[in-house]
Write a structure and sequence with these properties.
With 71 residues, the chain is mainly beta. The protein has strands at residues 2-3, 10-13, 17-19, 22-24, 29-38, 41-48, 53-57, 61-63. The protein has a single domain, classed as SH3 type barrels. The protein has no helices and 8 strands. A hairpin with a 4-residue loop joins β6 and β7.
Length: 71
Amino acid sequence: MIDVSLRGVRCRAAQEILDSDGTVGTATEGTIVYELEGEGGQLVNVQWDNGTTSLVSSEEIEITDRDVTWQ
C-alpha cells in the first residue's frame, strides 16, 4: 500500500546509496514522495535534489524536518 502522509518531507541520505542511476552520496538531500510497506521493511521513494529519484530503505535516510518523525 502506498502511503503519502510524509509527501514533501525533507530527508538526507544517511549513507552512500547505490542506485541504478548511479550513487547517491552521504548527506545528499531530497524530498519524500511516498512510502511502501514491503516484505523486507519500509521503502521510501525519494526525489533527490540532484534530480534523480530512488526507492530506498527507510534505514538509508534520515528525516531532516524537525517536526516530523517516523510513524
